[in-house]
Amino acid sequence: MQYELIKNLKISTRFGYTKYDGNAKTFTPLVFFGLNNVDNSMNGDGTTVAGKHNSVAQEKANYNQFTYELFGNYNFKVLTNHNFETTAGFSMAKSSGNTAGTSRQDVPFNSWAFADYTAATGTNSPTNLNAATGYYYQYEKRNASVFGRINYDYKEKYLVSVTARRDGSTSFGKNNKWGIFPSGSLGWVASKENFFKSKFIDFLKIRGSYGSLGTDNITPQDRTILTDYLASLYGSGNSIGYTYGNNFISGSTLASLGNENIGWEKQLQMNIGFDMNFYKNKFNIAADYYQKNTKGLIYQASVPAVLLGGLQAPFANIGSTKSSGVDITLGYNSRVGKDLKVSTSATFTTVKNLVTGTNQEGTARNVGGSYFNGQSQTVSVFEKGKTPYYYYGYKTVGLFQTEAEIAASPLQPGAQAGDIKFADLNGDGVINSKDQTQIGNPFPKFTLGWNLNLEYKNFDLSVLTYASSGNDVYRALERNANYTNKFRSVLDRWTGPGTTNDAHNPRYSFTDPNNNARVSDRYVEDGSFIKVRNIVLGYNFQMTPIKRIFKSVRLYGQIKNAFTFSKYTGFDPEISAGLSDVGVDRGAYPQARTYSVGLDIKF
Amino acid sequence: MKKLQIRITGLLLTVTMLTACNKWVDYDPKDDFKITDLEYFKSEADYRSIAVGTYAPLQWLNQIVPVGDIISDNSVTGGESASDVLSLQQINNFTHTAVNGTTADLWQSCYEGINRANYMHQYKDKNPAGVNISFPGKDALYGEVYFVRAYYYFTLVKMYGGVPLFVDKRLTLSDLGTIKRANAADVYKQIEADLTSAIAVLPVVQSEKGRATKYAAQALMGKVLLYQNKFGPAAAMLENVINSNAHSLVVDFNSIFLPSGENGPEAVFEIQYSNGSATYDWGHVTRGQGNYAVQQCGVRGLNGSAAMPYSPGWSTNLPTQNLAAAYAAGDKRKGVTVLDIEAYKTANPGFNITYQVAPYQNTGLYNQKYLPRKGETSGQVELNYSNNFRTIRYADVLLMAAEAFNKSGNDVKAQAYVNLVRRRAFGNNANDITATGTALYDAILNERRLELAMEGERFFDLVRTGKATAVLGPLGFVTGKHELFPIPQGEVDLAGLTQNPGY
């Protein structure tokens, strides 16, 4: 709705509503996988394995979101060339949802046809609490904000914009519900100045901006008591029940510590740069220096068990980070000869990441990148003055060749000939946890994106290439276990004095008394890569009979994830993960290469 | 005029909306049906419920029993292969490091238990809302809480030596900087203080089996004193339990470990497990109501007739031939402690037994005391064995008393108590121990091994009596290092705790 109250003052109001309803049903039949398979729930003769059941699970979920906005615009000019656009208003939003589900065992005839709660026959007993179960949960989050904006320009030559918003969220503790987020930009289109008379440069704009925004993607952090035994067991394993004789009692305990001070995570970004078109607008360049500061990063701190036992730390604004670098995009658009059209751009980005603060006097460490290779390990550390979640572990200095070499080296408990020799960094004559240090940086030093589009007569070709340089990958996918397949590199292992001194290839030992499997640079590799992400070759049919019926007809072939060039020995050096797991390769399934052929028809 | 009206209405609407905005983002935990601790601790029922929560981590300490034998000459880890249950393999070989899932889990379990007990202690006089809640039996209930706290600290101090010590409150994040290791003597002092408080208020009988009694607290106190070589006070403390005649040795040694023998006359304290609230949570195998250590002990692929009493398991924690050989002829405890599966098969052809020979470190022997038995589990069968741990048996009390009296110069009483245990074992008094002095001491320690084998005592007995080097040295025990387990690496890194020597 829009209403013009007085001249140039418009009041607008907007209302948005989204609703989602979901229904799901899952049937888990009794299955015979093969003789002696431990996962069998059915025997070869069709009978049920003792203690096993089939089951059906049903779930209904709904999700509602509404937003309401009310704002006014007032645009005016001062003198003739000073243009002002102002906006002020507020908005409210609510997202809520709930989910209810049931499951029941013993579906008749082990068949989809009868897979429904009403047909299944499972009944709970003291020895089987899962024969018929139900659950329900709900959530609601509300936001509000007040905002204002002023845009100003003088002859479209000098541009100024200032925005401020104050945002509130139900997610945060009562002390920090509201956050203020200012932003602004300045621009100068130098090429519009009268004194600017370059033949070479067609357009030049110098600009700077500052922006801030907030994240509230958490649930409220309360100090709560847990009284539900099953809820205490599943998930956290922080069980509260006990059985006295045969009398089971579901007890209670404090389940979360709460945090009344949690507030907005703020991203502040600053850019200074210019845009320029030159040489008959054939070339364009955009260059920026940027700095992104994240303040009050919302995360769960790593805490020792001595402090919280089985509890998790509450979410808190645990730290701040800074990324800075330059971002340069160079483009070229032109026609070569009569039929060839070339359009290409390349973006070069450098980035430097730094943790600028953590909670508790800046001494706190947060660990991430957990994995299991026989024992549970963590490799990544977040602490002040370092790259966020850099790799932390031991440095290797080759392999022990002989018992004599072990005797002559700093004391390393459990070492035998063929085991990895670790560096005694603090020089105290003992290899222990104090000898750990930074062994890798998961972030690239720079990245490069290159986009090439060619059109020749009726053909078109586009190629998208991406490169990342200097990012380390931690190979967390190897497991030192019997009866599992090994990587081919095991063939290069140490088999006697002088066979190899490469710390990647120690002797093979299942019991591993030297803990060769500890977190060390043995598992760190350069994960730099070049990927040709996308190649599309198309042909436009221009024949008259076709053009009569269709607006356009285009046949194309496409290869997604076409080529990867990398020295990384794992499956794929590009690992998608959250911040605390960045670059930790747990053996995720690599991206597939996809070939496709398509036909685009427009009427 | 009309324009003005519109303006005023618009202005009012805006102001109303802006105030509404502030309320719009208010939040009350009740909106999400959450109970905060301000709403809790308001009734006797709340206090009793949260006290149950302090017992729960006793069950989580499940692996301390297998660990106490695996790291000694009593048993080996076994399992499927050298890399199966790696954390136990390394403990078995004395190659365990600060990165060890089993010891880290025990550490965490103890500190969750301590934090829960402290949380209860924190609101003893006033609840979080500042109100005193009094009810009959409150002191006795707190006696239970102090008993379990003493149990957790005792588990920690015997595994790790001096550990961080705090008793006033459940810790929060802001306490991180204050955490450091206390010395072992101070930890023992606190354990004694807690047990003294517990002894003063606990009843001699609890209507619910498995709750701590006065005698349980006295027996644990006796053990704690013995671990500090305070032999005189230990002897006196343990005699309280003996002279009460509240407990007795059951005649049939085997019956102690049957389901029917749980919480029997010999049980001074048992950590309770049940199959009544079956868990399916493979992510937290030691955290449900079932006893996970039982499944570990079982014979692999065991099959037989319906009359054959045992169920299969995973062949970990296998008794050694060394242990079997330690029993004299006629000692009925041998067959109860170690099951020679091949001999059993031969002796019982009617059972039609088939089984898989333990694939790694096979000794041919299995832990009969806690062997999985048919009908003892439910739901996810591996996780829900109902066998209680016989944590403090009356036989243990007698042997501790014998040791304490021997060390404080009363060999007559020492002989009397150790021979009570031996007579039950042999069914006669022909095997009574007549030695005195040091020979008697060695005989009592040997008796502890025979009586309490596979009950998790062996390693800690060897360490506290100074015999570990002689007995375990050939197995890889390093003096000055392996008396204590390493502080879990995460605790060293995050809390800045100092590591134990040698790790």
Offer a few descriptive terms.
heterodimer; A: 603 residues; mainly beta; 18-stranded antiparallel beta sheet; four-stranded antiparallel beta sheet; B: 503 residues; mainly alpha; two-stranded antiparallel sheet; two-stranded antiparallel ribbon; 19 helices; 6 strands; globular
Enumerate the spans of chain A where pLDDT stays under 50 for 5 or more consecutive residues. none
Largest sheet features of chain A: 18 strands, antiparallel
% residues in beta strands of chain B: under 5%
Alpha-beta content class of chain B: mainly alpha
Instruction: Indicate the overall shape of chain B.
Output: globular
Average pLDDT for all residues of chain B: 94
* Assembly classification: heterodimer
Give the number of DSSP strands of chain B: 6
Structural class of chain A: mainly beta
Tell me the Rg of chain A in angstroms.
31 Å
Global Rg of chain B: 27 Å
**SSE sequence of chain B, one letter per element:** HHHEHHHHHHEHEHHEHEEHHHHHH
Question: How many H/I helices of chain A?
Answer: 4
Show the helix and strand layout:
The complex is a heterodimer of chains A (603) and B (503).
Chain A: E1 2-6, E2 9-28, E3 55-78, E4 82-105, E5 132-154, E6 158-169, E7 178-189, E8 201-215, E9 223-226, H1 229-233, E10 241-244, E11 247-250, E12 253-257, E13 265-278, E14 283-300, H2 305-308, E15 315-336, E16 340-350, E17 352-358, E18 366-372, E19 376-382, E20 390-393, E21 396-399, H3 403-408, E22 420-422, E23 437-440, E24 446-456, E25 459-469, E26 472-475, E27 524-526, E28 529-541, H4 544-549, E29 552-566, E30 584-585, E31 594-602
Chain B: H1 2-24, H2 44-60, H3 64-70, E1 75-78, H4 86-92, H5 101-122, H6 138-160, H7 184-201, H8 214-227, H9 231-243, E2 267-271, H10 292-297, E3 316-319, H11 321-325, H12 333-337, E4 338-340, H13 341-347, E5 365-367, E6 389-393, H14 394-407, H15 411-426, H16 437-452, H17 458-464, H18 468-472, H19 489-495
Antiparallel strand pairs in B: 1-3, 2-6, 4-5
Helix pairs in contact in B: 2-5, 2-6, 5-6, 6-7, 6-8, 7-8, 8-9, 8-14, 9-14, 14-15, 14-16, 15-16
